[in-house]
Amino acid sequence: MVRMIVQGLTIDPSSNSPILILKDPEGERNLPIWIGLLEATAIASELEKVEFSRPMTHDLLRNIINGLGYSVGKITINDLKDNTFYAKIELMGPEGEVSIDSRPSDAIALALRAEAPIFVAKAVLDQSGISGQDEDQRSDEKWKDILEEMTPEDFGKYKM
Fold first, then answer.
1. CATH topology of domain 2-149
2. What is the pLDDT along the chain (160 residues), one digit of tens a residue?
3. The model's pTM
4. The BFN domain covers which part of the protein (predicted)?
């Protein structure tokens, strides 16, 4: 298992679908996961620390887990089958550990609220991960494309 953190959210320009980007803290591997708009909103609201007057779904789930004497120990993205990621929420409590099947987006939204670590199976990263170098190279190529298409007029008063 490789520990990951949420790098952020972006939009797939071809499908307008949200993409959740996980990365390892050393920046060597990234894992993009296409998610739904509602799940992206739940994750973004927690990343931005948006306060709501009433508990949202993932806040409610965390409150129920804690109210029953359990805590979220960690979440793991443990499998990838037919382009679908699978995750587990690992709960710790008075009866021991409990593992619950989950969609990765829901597990991550809960992990963020519970401040629980996020792990990805090495096999999943090997299948779908992107090396940090690949991401940097793609970013460099994207900027190169943008700059090559610009004209001096695009710079406004800052003429070259």
1. Bifunctional nuclease domain (3.10.690)
2. 999 999 999 988 888 889 999 999 887 789 999 999 999 999 999 999 988 899 999 999 999 999 999 999 999 999 999 889 999 999 999 889 999 999 999 999 999 999 999 999 999 998 887 765 554 455 455 555 555 555 555 444 433 3
3. 0.78
4. 1-132
